[in-house]
Write a structure and sequence with these properties.
35% of the residues lie in helices and 25% in strands. By secondary structure, it is an alpha+beta fold. It has 3 domains: 104 residues, Phosphorylase Kinase, domain 1; 215 residues, Transferase(Phosphotransferase), domain 1, CATH 1.10.510; 135 residues, 2-Layer Sandwich (Phosphorylase Kinase, domain 1), CATH 3.30.200. The strands form 5 sheets. Strands 1-5-6-4-3-2 form a 6-stranded mixed β-sheet. Helix 3 runs antiparallel to helix 5. The longest helix is centred in the middle third of the chain and has 22 residues. The protein is elongated, with a radius of gyration of 28 Å.
């Protein structure tokens, strides 16, 4: 259904002649007024009277939004493009001047822009709401790229262009820079660069190249802002290439309801979604920061979201004890695990469960309630060098998915406050635990057979996976 063409006097009436009291937002291109039309609250965006570029933006935004209908895209209600004469004083004389008024009317979003809910350090929203916003933004962007007859590239996605309704449902807005393309595979070069630094990908800044990966990079930067605040990108770069450190950093700042902590399935969902978001921004923004061809497309991201939702639905429908183990049997993305759970499945890291040791870690057999087994690798020699090696191993395994490389199921990067003796007295000290949870390999390492500690017999399955030695 096409949007309504309003007369200027109609919009003047419902905004009290564009009263200052009804302004709910200001921007570089115009002001936004709150109004009531036929009993429905709406937002009236009045563009500043600037010729040329802004008129092009107005027509562009109107054309793009006129046909789009999606729960995560702002709904255009109507518009007004009016030119009239007004008697004005100019250089001491009265002249008749042409005044252009360009206005767009949208559904009113009670939650304001996402930008208002993000502080320097983190979002002031609880994680459940943050994840809902991330999920909805992904779905809205996927609709733009894949749900139209001709794909639409937004080209200016950022927190200030994501609005929230009274249920905190996100809706992508502002399509002044958006462009239609023949297919999502198309890429082209622009003559001028427009957008917001921090949300523009490197290939656009360097060579003005536009593709479907432009919006994906902007999405990654937006997710970082939601998770780690306005200063999040700088902090993300500081802890790269370690997603485990980034998750720990986010966990210290993001708000979750205390009552949720007592509900195990909800806590598992918290860790699953937090881990998924960290893996996604790693795929988008690191390590292939400048390589758009290896950046995932939005369709791939939404597909992973759907798989995650199916896994979450399954584990939250199980009894609490079974939910703990289910997190270790989910899809390809590793998840953050609680230290206590790893203690439980390894009998508190008992010697009886010990499988082997290496230069800086010990590997234990973990037994799940359903009888399945996993391998839990624990850092025991905690030096700066060993911590770095351990983190590198976890971060590398996060990006690998191959039948001949041992699979990382989860990890634990948890800091405890312990009471310990120091110089003839007891003091509180921080103790950070580093653990990796890997698929269990019942036949051990190849080294056992080569060194003569075992023999290769016909009974050994042919599909024993060769392991990279440093993993064990």
């Amino acid at each position: 259904m096409d949007s309504t063409c309003f007369r200027l006097h109609q919009l003047e009436a419902i905004t009290n002649n564009f009263s200052e009291d009804q302004i709910v937002g200001r921007g570089g291109r115009g002001d936004v007024y709150k109004a009531v039309l036929n009993g429905e609250e709406i937002a009236v965006k009045r563009l500043h009277s600037m010729q040329g570029l802004d008129d092009k933006d107005f027509r562009n935004e109107l054309r793009k939004l006129n046909k789009i209908r999606h729960k995560n895209i702002i709904r255009l209600i109507g518009y007004c493009h009016d030119t009239h004469k007004k008697c004005m004083e100019y250089e001491g004389e009265l002249v008749l001047a042409s005044i252009q008024e360009r206005l767009l009317c949208f559904e009113y979003m009670q939650g304001g822009s996402l930008e208002k809910h993000i502080g320097d350090e983190s979002s002031v929203l609880d994680w459940t709401t943050c994840y809902k916003i991330i999920q909805g933004t992904c779905e809205g962007l996927n609709h733009l790229h894949n749900g139209q007859e001709k794909p639409i590239f937004h080209l200016d996605l950022k927190p200030s262009h994501i609005l929230l309704d009274n249920n905190m449902t996100p809706k992508i807005t502002y399509f002044g820079l958006a462009t239609c393309v023949a297919s999502t595979e198309e890429e082209y070069q622009t003559e001028t660069m427009r957008g917001t630094f921090g949300y523009m990908p490197p290939e656009y800044i360097d060579k003005c190249i536009v593709s479907n990966k432009f919006d994906v990079f902007s999405l990654g930067s937006t997710i970082i802002a939601v998770m780690a605040g306005n200063m999040g990108y700088r902090r993300y770069v500081q802890v790269s290439p370690s997603p485990t450190k980034f998750i720990e950093l986010v966990r210290k700042n993001i708000y979750i309801f205390h009552e949720h902590i007592r509900l195990l399935p909800i806590l598992l969902v918290y860790f699953c979604t937090l881990s998924w978001c960290t893996v996604i921004i790693r795929e988008i923004n690191y390590p292939n920061f400048a390589c758009r061809k290896r950046r995932p497309c939005i369709e791939h991201i939404v597909r992973e979201l759907e798989e995650l939702e199916a896994d979450i639905k399954r584990i939250t429908s199980q009894p609490p004890d079974e939910s703990k183990d289910s997190i270790l049997q989910m899809g390809s993305n590793p998840y953050h695990l609680q230290l206590q759970h790893l203690k439980d499945i390894t009998d508190n890291f008992s010697d009886a469960r010990r499988l082997g040791s290496g230069g800086f870690g010990v590997v234990y057999k973990g037994v799940l309630r359903n009888g399945n087994m996993v391998a839990v690798k624990k850092l025991v020699l905690s030096t700066l060098k060993s911590q770095k090696q351990f983190e590198n191993e976890g971060d590398l395994l996060m990006t690998l998915n191959h039948p001949n490389i041992v699979r990382l199921l989860g990890y634990c990067y948890e800091t405890e406050l312990i009471y310990r003796p120091y110089e003839d007295k007891f003091v509180f000290a921080q103790d950070t635990k580093h653990l990796l949870c890997l698929e269990y390999m019942p036949n051990g390492s190849l080294d056992n057979y080569i060194s003569g500690l075992g023999t290769l017999e016909d009974s050994v399955p042919r599909d024993i996976k060769p392991l990279i030695p440093h993993l064990w």
